[in-house]
Design a protein that fits this description.
single chain; mainly alpha; 11 helices
Length: about 220
């Protein structure tokens, strides 16, 4: 049975959600598709190329703010883009690990060019624009890696004895104060912490721009 590239990627994305990235293999995928494993290599030379394609499909489906909207300034876009990346990675099992190890396609370069143009038009150099794009993306990917890792840890530890954080943190008053919300809710407010870190990044970018413009 002949199968197209799109069908392979679609099934691979479903399989990823079911088994996770560590157990995703071309052998399992071929079995799911009802084909011999070599049939996949007509479309993908190796697993890395397959993962690249899965990542591109994930972004295409879920990343709704990948490009600036007409009239949108760079701060509004950066916030929307970062939030959209996070939502996208959280939409797929091991989404952060998937995107961290993959490469963009040539088709995606056109989108990157439009993003860089927004920053350059706002006063940043081409190099600064690229650094901003990389910094924001890697901040989000790293953040979601922690979120998804903690999610898996909670599943593993769900039957383990509860930790007495009050006792453990007693010798560390500053840390205890910082984690008061954790004690009340039983978990860190990841949404709030994400937004706080993102605003710190943007504040640094704004300061860079002010320094350039005043100099």
């Amino acid at each position: 049975m002949a199968i197209g590239r799109d069908g392979i990627v679609d099934e691979a994305l479903r399989l990823l959600d079911e088994v996770g990235i560590d157990k995703l293999s071309t052998r399992k995928l071929a079995e799911r598709l009802g084909v011999q494993q070599p049939a996949l290599y007509w479309h993908f030379r190796n697993k890395s190329e397959l993962l690249d394609a899965i990542n591109s499909e994930m972004l295409l489906r879920f990343h709704s703010d990948r490009l600036p909207k007409p009239g949108q300034d760079w701060v509004a876009f950066t916030l929307a883009n970062a939030r959209s990346i996070r939502k996208t990675l959280l939409s797929v099992r091991d989404g952060a690990r998937l995107t961290a190890g993959t490469r963009p396609s040539i088709a995606e370069f056109a989108d990157v060019e439009k993003v860089l143009q927004l920053y350059v038009d706002s006063g940043f150099s081409a190099r600064e624009a690229f650094e901003i794009a990389i910094c924001v993306t890697r901040y989000v990917v790293g953040y979601v890696l922690e979120e998804q890792g903690e999610r898996e840890r909670q599943q593993i530890d769900q039957n383990a004895p509860k930790t007495d954080f009050g006792t453990e943190l007693a010798p560390f008053p500053l840390l205890a104060k910082a984690l008061e919300t954790f004690h009340e809710a039983g978990t860190v407010n990841t949404e709030e912490v994400f937004e706080s870190g993102l605003k710190c990044l943007i504040a640094g970018m704004q300061e860079t721009l002010r320094t350039k413009q005043s100099g």
